[in-house]
């Protein structure tokens, strides 16, 4: 039997709350029921009031940009820190909106708020440390200074699966780097984004420096096509990232601008015969079924060494039997529904199409978008080449002595987000590290829950452009890098710069 803490609390840097505590849970339950009673849902929010057009939003942000970018970096960083504090003060309310709107489980909703807090504090620290003028070595008589400055107005486009953490992470990074931002949440999750933006304004970020742009793909498309937009940060599908890239280059008169894209993956875990079976099963269940498999980091393709395949799958079946699938507002729930009917239909279609190959599936409530967590056997590891964004785990085997070949097959899919290895052989870990073309490699642990600052997250190939979120190279990508080289010699006929005081002005 496996421990019941299959979905142990996620590790984060900021504090959490005790989800075993009755009073805490009662407060969360009350917040969720308050939340259900009031406030517009995603669909309703779009109607009624005439809102500004994307073009008007960009214009306003562009006007507000000069004052914001002229502020010292520590002032902008202080806004992020105040926002982190406000997020913590409103943690229960934000968790409730997240459960209600994104249908996240309570532990996932808590992890979501904590990750958003971590992003704010981390980027504030990073900005103060690195977005300052850097004096570079150079020839005598010359001063060379590298500056990181804002670029103008960024559009940030966020996914529904991390409607607070990624929505805010992208946005506050752009802001602290000295940009104004028009921030577009996913159409499924406008409400938590709206609350986050309110709190950001309360934290001192001027209203026209951060503008919320709720709406569907047409809003994102209008922002991306706007030639005044000086950069785009996007998390979502590979196909949409490609469209954005194409659009950014389409207009001949438009300056070249950066795109930061974090997209999907066909993430594999390779397990050899030396791995600890209990740990493997626990990490497989967490990596493929937590958050109903709706994380781009999630495990999609389990690759078991032939010798241990059947015994591992037997244990996996047993562990899957203990999963509680149901109402995300119930604290006992491990796995909630998927985001909407479209996702449900898509995943159920795949599940039906593979019916003859099921290794294991479990019962779920009939009402609602509950996709049964299912393990599906593949004839070959080459039979999975696209991402199924839900609780469907595909399983294949590999032969002893073919570790390198197995990694090559995974690499050949062209995605490069996360990979896992379970093995007790140091040499195998070195081999995977040397050969795997992925952004995040996880050895003998689960493949989800990257910690801000410790596990910078993001991929390559079809999985994204980088730089990694929550890492030291993220903020500079939002900046223009500018170098000033000044001749400082007073002799030799060179002009010397004098202050206005020096010349008695
Ligand atoms: C995503 O699902 O879009 O490591 C990426 C993790 C998360 C993944 C976020 N930070 O599980």
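Q: What amino acid sequence fits the structure above?
A:
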């Amino acid at each position: 039997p496996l421990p019941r803490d299959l979905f142990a609390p996620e590790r984060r840097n900021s504090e959490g709350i005790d989800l075993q505590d009755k009073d805490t849970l009662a407060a969360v339950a009350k917040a969720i029921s308050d939340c259900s009673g009031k406030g517009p849902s995603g669909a309703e929010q779009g109607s009624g009031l005439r809102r500004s057009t994307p073009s008007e939003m960009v214009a306003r942000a562009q006007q507000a940009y000069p004052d914001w970018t002229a502020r010292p970096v520590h002032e902008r960083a202080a806004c992020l820190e105040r926002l982190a504090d406000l997020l913590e003060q409103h943690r229960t309310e934000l968790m409730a909106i997240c459960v209600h709107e994104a249908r996240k489980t309570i532990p996932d909703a808590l992890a979501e708020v904590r990750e958003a807090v971590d992003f704010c504090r981390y980027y504030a620290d990073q900005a103060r440390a690195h977005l300052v003028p850097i004096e570079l070595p150079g020839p005598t008589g010359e001063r060379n200074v590298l500056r990181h400055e804002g670029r103008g107005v960024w559009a940030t486009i966020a996914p529904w699966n991390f409607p607070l953490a990624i929505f805010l992470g992208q946005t506050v990074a752009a802001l602290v780097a000295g940009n104004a931002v028009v921030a577009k949440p996913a159409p499924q999750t406008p409400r938590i984004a709206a609350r986050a933006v309110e709190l950001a304004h309360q934290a001192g970020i001027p209203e026209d420096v951060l503008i919320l742009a709720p709406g569907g793909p047409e809003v994102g498309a209008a922002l991306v096509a706007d030639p005044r937009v000086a950069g785009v940060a996007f998390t979502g599908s590979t196909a949409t990232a490609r469209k954005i890239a194409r659009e950014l280059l389409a207009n001949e008169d438009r300056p070249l601008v950066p795109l930061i894209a974090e997209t999907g993956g066909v993430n594999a875990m390779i397990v050899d015969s030396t791995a600890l079976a209990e740990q493997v099963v626990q990490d497989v269940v967490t990596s493929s079924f937590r958050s109903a498999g709706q994380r781009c980091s999630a495990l999609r393709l389990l690759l078991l060494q032939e010798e241990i395949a059947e015994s591992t799958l037997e244990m996996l079946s047993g562990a899957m039997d203990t999963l509680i699938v149901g109402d995300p507002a119930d604290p006992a729930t491990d796995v909630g529904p998927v985001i909407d009917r479209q996702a449900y239909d898509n995943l159920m279609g795949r599940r039906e199409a593979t019916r003859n190959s099921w290794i294991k599936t479990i019962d779920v409530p009939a009402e609602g978008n509950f996709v049964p967590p299912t393990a599906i056997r593949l004839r070959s590891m080459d039979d999975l080449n696209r991402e199924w964004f839900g609780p469907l785990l595909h399983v294949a085997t590999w032969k002893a002595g073919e570790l390198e070949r197995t990694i090559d097959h995974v690499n050949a899919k062209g995605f490069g987000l996360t990979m896992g290895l379970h093995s007790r052989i140091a040499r195998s870990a070195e081999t995977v590290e040397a050969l795997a073309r992925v952004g995040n490699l996880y050895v003998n642990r689960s493949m989800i829950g990257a910690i801000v600052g410790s596990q910078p997250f993001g991929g390559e190939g079809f999985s994204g452009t980088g730089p990694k979120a929550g890492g030291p190279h993220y903020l500079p990508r939002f900046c223009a890098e500018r170098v000033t080289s000044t001749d400082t010699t007073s002799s030799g006929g060179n002009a010397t710069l004098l202050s206005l005081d020096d010349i008695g002005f």
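Q: And what stands out in the fold?
A: The pocket of 2-aminohexanedioic acid is lined by residues 159, 161-162, 166, 235, 295-297, 448-450, 457 (CB under 6 Å).
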